[in-house]
Specification:
By secondary structure, the protein is an all-alpha fold. Helix content is 59%, strand content 1%. It is built from 16 helices and two strands.
Length: 323
């Protein structure tokens, strides 16, 4: 398995990011970072340290510029909620998840009623495999937005059309359901799928939640309910970002074959989301050994922060009797 131990500390220090984490450190909100090997961001569900992966030079340069802008906005007004959120998001995009958690923790101290802080910190708790912390944050975020009007969430990495496809509430429910799914609490994830569907307004949202919802129901043996999740999904949906989920759903409906999405005999996974969906389709259709081999293939790749990668870890851990 590829492991790169390159640290982002020099970049972050050069940009002066350390100062914004002081309040979070004092509050003890950085999680289990003190027990990690030097430079590691997390311990995988299989017990391996996970280190930040270097971005291509062009991407890294753009990330550094984005962080400089976000840092300048934060320095101009350290109490501004938007400035805190964007600094945390920009830092998180580099793979410095623990530092992002500290920034959002500072935001929570300053804006305890702002659901966005808990939503973003919850996401990064998932990245570092601390699912109970994620569930706590995201459940609180869901409580804060209950009964409130939803709002579009700006994209940090815009799609090719420049059209945001997600909202604050959909992201809260998505990540809350995901954290429960990753723990193997498929039943517990179902109310969040329903809450997400209630705020769905576009095809990208529909296919994103339908994919995970369908898998959870199949793993619970509720096949008839799973089939109803697929009914609104058609080949002509105008999906902008979540084309992997769209194609997987069409496979679940029988309109595409698994080998069209990923044939392990002919090559590596085209994308971790697709690979995980295909592997899990084999799992809940009774082909456990084939699914396990596919999960292992996924874990040979990079991109350990991807949800399909994390889910592959979780399923291998369960199959092998681990945590």
């Amino acid at each position: 398995m590829k492991r790169n131990r390159m640290k982002l500390g020099a970049l972050l220090l050069a940009l002066g990011l350390a100062a914004c984490g002081e309040a979070a450190d004092e509050a003890g909100t950085s999680g289990g970072a003190e027990t990690l090997p030097e430079g590691a961001e997390a311990i995988s569900l299989l017990g391996e340290p996970l280190y930040p992966s270097p971005a291509p030079a062009e991407v890294a340069a753009q990330q550094a510029r984005d962080i400089e802008v976000a840092r300048a906005d934060y320095d101009a007004d350290p109490d501004d909620a938007d400035a805190i959120i964007w600094l945390g998001r920009r830092v998180g995009y580099t793979g410095a998840f623990r530092h992002a958690i500290e920034i959002f923790s500072e935001g929570i101290e300053k804006h305890p009623g702002d659901a966005r802080m808990y939503r973003h910190r919850g996401h990064r708790w998932i990245s570092v495999r601390e699912f109970d912390r994620a569930i706590e944050d995201l459940s609180h975020a869901a409580d804060l937005v209950r009964g409130e009007e939803d709002e579009v969430e700006p994209d940090g990495q815009p799609n090719e059309r420049g059209i945001p496809t997600s909202t604050l509430q959909s992201n809260i429910h998505y990540h809350l359901a995901l954290a429960r799914y990753l723990k193997g609490d498929f039943e517990g994830a179902l109310p969040s799928y329903e809450a997400y569907l209630a705020v769905t307004t576009n095809p990208d949202q529909l296919v994103a939640i339908s994919h995970w919802w369908y898998m959870a129901l199949r793993r619970l043996g509720r096949d008839a309910e799973a089939a109803t999740v697929l009914e609104p999904v058609t080949a002509d949906l105008d999906v902008i970002e979540n084309t992997s989920y769209h194609r997987l759903l069409l496979m679940y409906k029988g309109e595409l074959t698994a080998d069209e999405l990923w044939d392990p005999e002919s090559g590596d996974p085209a994308g971790v989301a697709v690979a995980y969906g295909v592997a899990t389709w084999h799992l809940y259709n009774g082909r456990e050994a084939q699914a396990a081999e596919m999960y292992r293939r996924i874990l040979e790749g990079s991109g350990w922060a991807g949800f399909g990668y994390i889910a592959s870890e979780a399923d291998i851990a369960r199959l092998e009797g681990g945590a």
